[in-house]
Write a structure and sequence with these properties.
About 75% of the residues lie in helices and about 0% in strands. The protein is rod-shaped and about 120 Å long. The N terminus is likely disordered.
Length: about 300
């Protein structure tokens, strides 16, 4: 794409640089035509007029032809030819990019037609043996076609860039949605697992060890305590208002550990372990109190 953009810029710059020359073309064409006409008159004058009259006619032809010699016209044609080649190269490269992208460009044209400019290029390739007036006309045509191809290339490039940006945004949105869906599915699976009695026990063992440094001996006491209170059922409810695995009274106390306290065993466990630590120090102390008083 960078090479295409550079080629397009070169073609555009060359076409712009030729605009001044194009503005002078009608005058040059008229001068050349006038010169040809006076050339015929001069030929007749040479036969029927004195030498002085011939010299005046030659001067008149020189003045009408203007200051631009044929060599300059040829140089200008060469410059226009370079710009035309650059425009064609950029257009062909962009056409290929559009095809390879496979993108929908909407209502925009999907290809640049360089046929007319190719025709002008082929004609200008014969400039070395071409009359000056014809070369001037063909150069002007080539410059016009070059400008049109440059404009079409810029338009198509803008459409392709917009389509590429849209695809990138769509792909990013799709990837984000897929990632969010995967995370939600993983969270749902984790919740379903922890909300079983065995899953809750495994989660409690991990939390007790990682957050409080309680080993298996303390977990055995915790297991006995919460077996007695709720059988590790996160939906356990006592008419007194005690709720969940740790039988918090009222259950809303557990909101301090998470707004999902009513549906997530892990949130209930987190609150329960914190309560035991702050009130009893260890699960075994809480279990001892429960055995002695039938509550903790």
């Amino acid at each position: 794409m960078l090479q295409n953009t550079r080629a397009l810029r070169r073609a555009s710059a060359a076409a712009s640089a030729r605009s001044d020359v194009t503005g002078r073309r009608p005058v040059l064409i008229f001068a050349a035509a006038g010169a040809a006409l006076l050339g015929i008159t001069l030929t007749v004058g040479v036969v029927s007029s004195p030498a002085a009259g011939s010299e005046n006619a030659v001067q008149a032809v020189a003045q009408l032809a203007g200051p631009e010699p044929l060599a300059k016209v040829a140089d200008e044609a060469s410059t226009s030819l370079v710009a035309a080649h650059a425009a064609v190269d950029a257009a062909i490269d962009l056409n290929a990019q559009v095809v390879l992208s496979g993108l929908d460009l909407g209502d925009s044209a999907t290809a640049i037609d360089t046929g007319e400019l190719h025709h002008d290029i082929n004609a200008l390739d014969e400039r070395a043996v071409m009359p000056g007036m014809l070369l001037t006309v063909l150069t002007a045509d080539a410059e016009k076609e070059t400008a049109e191809v440059v404009e079409q290339t810029a338009t198509l490039q803008a459409a392709l860039t917009a389509a590429q940006e849209k695809k990138a945004a769509d792909d990013a949105a799709k990837a984000a949605a897929e990632q969010a869906a995967a995370q939600a599915a993983a969270a749902a699976a984790a919740l379903a697992a922890v909300n079983t009695p065995d899953g809750a026990r495994a989660a409690a063992r991990d939390m007790a060890a990682s957050q409080y440094g309680w080993g298996d001996d303390q977990f055995q006491c915790l297991n006995s305590l919460w077996n007695k209170e709720s059988s590790w059922n996160y939906q356990a409810y006592n008419p007194s208002g005690a709720t969940g695995i740790p039988q918090a009274l009222p259950g809303s106390k557990m909101a301090s550990s998470g707004s999902d306290w009513a549906t997530n065993a892990a949130t209930q466990i987190a609150w329960g372990l914190g309560y035991i630590s702050s009130v009893y120090g260890t699960p075994c102390s809480a279990w001892g109190h429960s055995q002695a008083t039938n509550w903790y």
